[in-house]
Known about the structure:
By secondary structure, the chain is of the alpha+beta class.
Amino acid sequence: MAEQFSVPVTVRGYETDVQGHLNQSVYLQYAEHARWSILHAAGISQTELMGKGVGPVVLETNIRYLRELRAGDEVEVTCGFVWGEGKTFRLEQTIRRTDGTVSAELTSVGGLLDLKERRLVADPREYFRALTTDPERFGL
Length: 140
């Protein structure tokens, strides 16, 4: 796996629930933000993906909530790719406060969908390799 990419996020008040905690669905939004940010940092845009006829998909996500987050908390959201064989890959992500406290750990299974055939491409690594200006971001 490549060195963990991270993006900073500040928890906003409107993202919290009645107890003042970050709403559980927002953790997914933070993870998605980090995934698109790593693509952008590696030189890959949504337009380029669509031009190649593919789009990233999340097939499964597991979230472990460890410590609460509240409005104003500063966090970093990491994103790292773990490659196996076949059509899917794993994404490992951590949401961590700036003091080092881990708030949540997310593991997702993803792939690249052929937008015309509506099926996963056989080797997503090849698409990322062809599109990126920085293959090390993806551990390639």
